Structures are given as C-alpha cells and as structure tokens.
Amino acid sequence: MTDIYAQDINMCIWKRELSAELLTDIEQYLQGKPNLSITKIIKSDAINQELNEILKDFPNLAALRDNIAELIDMFSCLFDLKQVGFRLNVLEHAMCPRFHVDKIPCRLITTYSGNGTQWLSHDRVNRDKLGFKSQGLGDEQSGFYLNADDIQIVTTGHVALLKGELWQGNEEAGLVHRSPPASSDEKRLVMTLDFV
C-alpha cells in the first residue's frame, strides 16, 4: 500500500480474502435488516478501546471489529496520523451515485458486503464534464466517460486507497469514483477512513 506515495499512482488495492468467520458474522447481522450509520473520529493510540465503545451494541461482530481495528492501525501508520475519520454504514441506496473526486488527501474504502466502489482511470474520463460541469446531464449522457466497459470495480473485501484532490501535487487529478447502483435486494456494508 506504500505505492500510494508514488507521484504516478492514484489508487492502490489490497486484494484480500475475508475470513469465513467474518463473512458469517456480517451475513447474520445484515439479515436483521439493520440501520447502521456510524461516523466517528478515532484516535490512533486508542483504536481498540474506541471501537469497543462504538460497537458495544454489536457483540456478534467481534471479527468485524478486529478487522476494522487492523485497517485503522494500518491507515494511521501509513500516513502517520494521530486520528482518523471513521465511517461504517449499511446502505440500501447509493451514497454517492455520481462519479466524483474527493476533496481530501486520501481515503481508504472497503466494502464488506454488497457491490464494491466503481472507478475510472484518469485517462478514461473527460474532467471538463465532471460534476456541475456536466450541465445537469447524468454521467452516462454527458460524455464524461465514453464506454461503460471502462468502469472498474473494487471487489468486495478488497481494500482501496484513493488519492483525492488535496494530496500534494494531485490537484485536478483525484481518483474518479462512485457508489455502485443500488440493488433492491442487497444491502452494502461499507467502511471508509479519512484524514482529519
């Protein structure tokens, strides 16, 4: 994941397999049709204590808590952060349905269940039509990208680091991404970590 520091790298993906225990915990939890939306700042020197407090109402998610703690520790160490912005959400709709870039230095994102984040490589987009520059047209109609086959997907379970526009020297070059289209029969469990 240290490749994210390279000037010509805008995204790093850790291709990992989630454990059977973790997948079982998540599946059982999601069957209860939970409404989960946690946003918190976590101190990097108190990760386990803070996660135990945040997730105290979810005793059956010990494997998830341990996995989250590992990722927060990794993110904090990689960027020498004293605290991290943490979000954990169960989503029934696309949180960010339009392609966009983040106005932050870097974000870690992982999808524990459901479809993963969609993204486009820098050379496959027309940034002159990104966001409000699309003149109200949808991503598919605006000419922002030419071919749906160019859309790539972060596989469920994989961990992605996405450079944003506030990464030094990355102005106007943040990784273009969006939430996948919503599915009526599938909930997503998504975690993000941000600089604060």
TrEMBL record:
InterPro entries for the chain: DUF1826 (IPR014955)
Domain of life: Bacteria
Pfam family name, one: DUF1826
Protein name listed in UniProt: Succinylglutamate desuccinylase
Organism field: Paraglaciecola arctica BSs20135
